[in-house]
Structure formats: C-alpha cells, structure tokens
Amino acid sequence: MTRAMPQITLPDGESMPAYGQGTWHMGENRDSRADETAALRLGIDLGITLIDTAEMYANGVAEEIVADAMGQDREKLFIVSKVLPSNASQQGTIEACERSLRRLRTDRIDLYLLHWRAAHPFVETLAGFERLQRDGKIRHHGVSNFGRRDMAKWVSAGGANIVANQILYNLNRRDPEWGVIPWCHDRRISIMAYSPIEQGRMLGHKALAEVAGRHGAKPAQVALAWLLRQDGLIVIPKASQQQHVRENLGALDLTLTDDDLVTLDRAFPRPGRVSARQGLSYIYHRPALASVRTWITDMIRRPRRPH
Ligand code: NAP
Q: Which of 136, 137, 188 lies closest to 160, judged by CA?
C-alpha cells in the first residue's frame, strides 16, 4: 500500500520528501542488480518518492538502476544526484549533469549536489549549476560534506539559493549538531542525513535494542525515527534487500518518548558532553593511545606529596 511521506518545505515554497532511498554500492556487482532494482521499486510502490544517487556510485551504474526502478513513474519522484569534485568546473559540471541525465533517462534532476569540496573555485561550479537551472536540467542545487565555514564561503560566492547540505549524521555522529546543522537551520537550508544507520554498524548497540524492545520495533527503526523527529531533516537509508526497505519504512510509525530520548542521549552523547568515564574508556581501548594511557596511569599512581 502506498503511504504519504513526510515533507519539508523549501524556501521557494516547494515540498521535498523527508524520507528517501540511498543507492551507494548499488550497481557494483552485476549479480545483485536485479535485487537492487527490485528493492528500489518496492520502495517506490510503498510511497518513497525521493531517491539519492550520484555519478560516482558504481561509475554511473547506480543511476541506471534508478532509471530501471523508476520506469514510467518519473513525474512522482524527486531525484537527487551529485557531481564529482573533479568534474566541478563550470563546463565539467554541465557535462557531468548531462551524462547523469542520460543514465537516469530523464530530462531533469530535482536536486543536484556538489559531492564534496572541489579544487575548482565555488564560483565556477555555481556558474555551471546556474546554467543548468536556467536550462531546466536541474531544479535546485546543493552541496554535500560541507562544514560551516565552507557553507559560508559557498553562500558568499553567490550560492545563496542553495537548498540542502548532505552530511554524515546519525546517533553515533552528532558533531554537526554544534556547527553546521544550526547554521543551516537558521538559513532554511535543509540537512540530508546520510549513512543514517551507520551502514548497519550501530545496529548491535544495546541502547538501540533497549529502546526498540519498549516499542516492539527494530534497532534500525529507532535510529531512523531519532533522525526523522528533527525539523527540516531528510533521511536516506540505503537498502538492497526488500525486507530492509519495509523494515526501515516502519520508522515513520515510531514515536520516541522522552524516556527513549534520554536513553539514547546517554548512550550516544552529544559532542562536548562526554563524561570523564567515557573519555577514559576511549583512551584505554585505543592501542594507538598507549603512551597517553601510561602517562595517566603514572599520574594516578604517583604518591601525593604531603602538604
Ligand atoms: P546506511 O543507509 O546507513 O546503511 C546501509 C547499509 O545498512 C546496507 O548495508 C544495508 O543492507 C543495511 N541496512 C539497511 N537497512 C537495514 C536494516 N533495517 N537492518 C539491517 N541492515 C540494514 O548507509 P549509506 O548507504 O552509507 O547511506 C545512505 C545513503 O546516503 C547512500 O546509499 C547514499 O545514497 C548516501 N550517501 C552519501 C554520501 C555523500 O558523501 N554524500 C556518503 C555516504 C552515503 P542491504 O543493502 O543489504 O539492504
């Protein structure tokens, strides 16, 4: 059954889905292509209208898989793709986008991002984006992996109509909460959270299991629900397995309680709020920090001088 997706409102008044499907690593193995296409297609049939891809993913094959999964449904989808920094000169950006459009078998990309900071001056990439926008080949532009300083430079280079910054952000990666997220929020620039379940690595964490257990939910659903409750945030989990597509969508029905948020905050503290105990545990479990460990142990064991 198709369901309505949460939406965010862009500064021009248009809506953009707050939940989408990622595609990194799709297309890397020919034998998996049918399963990957079927997973994306299932997501579309269930109502997921945003798909995130990039020219980088499997050298463009991921974009072809998106086209296969999309079929005749282009009109209802919101497609995001990205230009590689090495292509991000003015002309290079235009040509990269045209190649992506051919692979995606469409005439426009809804949101086109600079994948990460390029050696090319921002004004050049922006000139490429502006030309593509004028020609109707991209509808909005954005960036990815930008910190606060680069965001400010992008805006002063002429990119004030930027709509999104796609960054690594999940329960285990909360650094952006002190810098780039509030910066973007104040300027109505949306954040797209990539690797929202840390590529599956965080799912064994006991706090996620505890919160999931309270709701009869799965750890991935808790991690996604934690992101989805935040205003102006877009979440793009990737799943090649249909079971994962269905499971992740369940996050939209999960409302975390205040107790859940306290449990998650304790297990995944905001940066800057690390307790002394957590700091010591970090040092004691990293072989590379052996000399710091020895120094601390010496300090603790050193007899105190009498006053
Ligand atoms: P992710 O979405 O956090 O995790 C994907 C991995 O988790 C896959 O191995 C997937 O397995 C597994 N998985 C998904 N749902 C699961 C579930 N319910 N239970 C257990 N495992 C589950 O990581 P990501 O792919 O890095 O990030 C998402 C998307 O963000 C990417 O695909 C890409 O579109 C985008 N991204 C952008 C950048 C950038 O620089 N802009 C960087 C990284 C990612 P299966 O595939 O086997 O189902």
A: 188
- Tell me what pLDDT residue 219 has: 98
Name the residue with the closest Cα to ligand 1, atom 9.
199
Dist. CA 151–CA 143, nearest whole Å = 8
CA of 76 to the centre of ligand 1 (A): 23
CA distance 199 to 212: 18
Q: Taking a C-beta distance cutoff of 8 angstroms, is the pair 254, 245 a contact? A: no
Q: What is the mean pLDDT of residues 49-77?
A: 98
Closest ligand 1 atom number to CA of residue 199 = 4
Scored b (16 or more CB within 10 A) or e, 14-26 reads: eebbbbbbbbbeb
Q: Is ligand 1 within 6 A of the CB of residue 221? A: no
35 lines ligand 1 (CB under 6 A): no
pLDDT digits (tens, 9 = 90+) for 197-207: 999 999 999 99
The model's pTM: 0.90
The alpha carbon of 199 and the centre of ligand 1 are apart by a number of angstroms equal to: 5
> What is the C-alpha separation between 157 and 217, in angstroms, rounded?
46
User: Any idea what DSSP says for residue 108?
Assistant: -
CB 18 within 8 A of CB 6: yes
